[in-house]
Amino acid sequence: MTTATPPHTPAPRSPENLGFEALPALMSLMTGDEKHDAAATSTLDALWVLYDRVLRVRPDRPGDPGRDRFLLSKGHGPMAYYAVLAARGFFPADWLPGFGSYESPLGHHPDRTLVPGVEIGSGSLGHGLPLAVGTALGLRARRPAGPRVWVLVGDAELDEGSNHEAIDFAGAAGLDGLHTLVIDNSSASHPPPGGIASRFTAAGWSALTVDGRDHEALYAAYTRPHPGRPHAVVARVEPKHA
């Protein structure tokens, strides 16, 4: 079944009208010993392009049944995610300095019950993609041309076998409402021969590899048509330990 992609209407910006250039300053407000800086910074550009130009989500209606779903599987490095959500107006930027404190809703792993716009509690590697498959399957059963599902995983997460079961199932089921964004910072212990994208195409997915800092390349990859197939975008960034 082919899922039509409705035209994207960008969500309104926050009252401060914050753009990408504000994100480093927002991230700098979050301090502490458990920041996972490299894990967070690797996702910054990819997350921004998604939220600024692709996802149909609105901060004034975070629970809208027709919204696209974004699942951060790479939940151990949520600072960029929090900065993007704050910039888009899902919660006030003055929450950010409390990151990781006992009283703050912004934990070291995101909590869907505490943070507006967060769809899942995450951080245990290998959970997000299977959850995204189930979400896409459920939404397709209810509304075949309805909301899209996006999930962000790290390349090291693909060492977990649960992801490969999910990849194979989604390809066989033709879940074209499912989109996986893989941030490749050369952290995987067992990278697939032929590259990460080849693992997805072998399972029947549409897949592209792009520069994870190039906003136009990311946008073109995100919006590439993929009728009848789930879609993966591998965003290559600088190696984690470079």
UniProtKB/TrEMBL annotation:
InterPro entries, per database record: THDP-binding (IPR029061), Transketolase_N (IPR005474)
Domain of life: Bacteria
Pfam families: Transketolase_N
Keyword 4Fe-4S: no
Cofactor list: thiamine diphosphate
Keywords per UniProt: Thiamine pyrophosphate
Gene3D superfamilies assigned to the protein according to its UniProt record, in alphabetical order: 3.40.50.970
Transketolase N-terminal domain residues: 35-223
Any one GO molecular-function label of the UniProt entry: magnesium ion binding
Assigned protein family: Belongs to the transketolase family.
Name this polypeptide is given: Transketolase
